[in-house]
Every structure is written in structure tokens, then in C-alpha cells.
Amino acid sequence: MPLRIIIERVAQVRIEREAARWLARLHADDCDERERARFREWLRADPTHATAFEELTTVWELVGARVPIDAHRPMQVTRRRLLLGGGATLTAVAGGFFALSAGAEIYRTDVGERRSLVLADRSKVLLDADSELRVRNRDTGCEATLERGRAHFDLQSRTTGSLVVRAGGCHLRIERGTFEIETGEGSAARILMLRGAGDVRQNENPIRTLATGHLFDETSTSVAPMPAAEVERLTAWQDGRAIFDNDSLAAAVQIMNRYDRQRLTIEDASTEGLRISGTFRVGDNAAFAEALRAMLPLDIEASGEALRLTRRAGRTAS
After folding, report:
1. In the chain, what are the helix, strand and coil shares in percent, each to the nearest 5?
2. How much is the CA Rg of the chain, to the nearest whole Å?
3. What percentage of the chain reaches a pLDDT higher than 70?
4. pTM summary value
5. What span, in angstroms and rounded, lies between the C-alpha atoms of 120 and 66?
6. Cα gap 178→123, rounded to integer Å
7. 28, 51, 289, 290: most buried by Cβ count inside 10 Å?
């Protein structure tokens, strides 16, 4: 074997070992900003460093690329921020889950998938199915934007600074506490404070304090206390449940479709306003459809990956 090839292989092995050491260090609890700065210097020193680190990290991510709906396995991925400078963008995607774009970390979940995250400031996040969260790390703390979906934040173990979370046209600033936030693409946000307190601001409106057990609804700009039963209903998704309390069929179908690729479709608009109550397991739309058939004047027609809900012949919606 030519000496040149031997030298190149030895160099490659050395780089791969260095990349493995950096991957381990960046996920250690005692990794500080000084060490992360040295990591960025190592990346900039040679283009092959970034390539080796990216390949190794991709393999690591793929080992646990998808987490089922009943899993709660945290993944500390944000410590591997690849800040190459000059506005460069480096992307690593595992099952559509994680990407880096222009300095922002992007986390996405698919239908029926949830993700447990640990941010750079040790804030813990449980990202619901069919959701997208963008995170930027600032000197003053993390900034997160929920583009769509729902997320549960636990800030009890976080370090210093404030966490700012944006959704819809509002944002929450908080240092310690536990809360949930929900929004749809281009729609208003809701924030439920489960523990602690934070400051909510909607566009240019005055800052309002959101205390434990209170819900902020951007649509009505109201802050209202929530009874225990309503808190349980709003947080049931963490246990893989959906609790409906006189909800419309249309609203229930929208929620259940977040967790199963076999989608429910309402074929008759006159049935959308039918009301439904009860507790159901998410991720099994076929079973939910059977429950609907037993409770409401509906029939089911299976068509490919869709379950079509039709009004039962001889019955009228009420």
C-alpha cells in the first residue's frame, strides 16, 4: 500500500477519534461555553472536521431517530450547535426531526410522534405530534418559537437567564416554572401555566402576569383560572390520551388526526357539530371511529388510509 494512502488513513482515523471525543464532551453535563468555543475552533480548522463530526452525529441520531407516542426518552441534541461562522448553514436531519438553519435549531415531529428535548440551558421540552419548534441560544438565554403544534416546557433544572417562548402573536418570558403552549400555523396561541409564573405580552399590549393554574388565550386576550378537571383535559396528551367534554366532532377529529396516519374525514358537513365526550387513547383512529359509530349517528367507510365518517341513513344530525 502506498505510503500516501497510509498517511491519509491514519489522519482520517485521528479526525474520527477527535470527532467522537467532541461528541461525548458536548453531551456531558459539565460542558461549558469555553469548551464549546474550542469545539467551534476545531470545526473551523479543517473542513474534514465538520464532515467527520456530521457523519458521526447523523449515525448517533439515527439510533434513536423515532420515539413512539408512549416514550419519554430525552435527547440532548442542542449541545452540538455547529456555528461555522459567516452565516454558513449545516443541516442534519433524523426522520425529519432535527435541523440547523442560519443559527436556529429546528425540531419537528411527524404525525404520531413525540420528542423529548433538553435545550442548552437545560430546559426540558416535550414536543407533541405534528409540531415544529425553533430554538436560538442567546447570551441572555434561550429563545424558542413554536411554529405549530404543542409543547410542554419544564424549567426546573435550567441554569441562568430567561427563556422566551413565542407563538402566534404573543410571547412568554419566564425564568423558572412549568407550562404548556399550543398554536396552529398562522393561528392564535394558548399558554397554560402549570407551575411558577411568567410575563405574557401580545404584540404591543401591556405585559400581563400568568400565574400557576391560569390560561392565557390569545384569541380573547384573557387570563383565566383553570379548574383541575380542565387542566387534566389540556395535559392528557402527555399520557397518550384525548379527553373531550362536549367537543364538536370536527374538533375531535382534528385532534385525533394528529396521532394517526389513518386519517378520519368527515364526509357530511351537517355532522361536524355533533358533540362528543369521553376519554380516548390516541394513535388508534380505527378504534376511535368504532366508538363514534356506537355513540353518534355515523357510519364508517374505510378507503385506503382514510376512515370516512358518513351520516347514518335514516338519522339526522343533532
Report:
1. 30, 35, 35
2. 23
3. 78
4. 0.68
5. 21
6. 10
7. 289
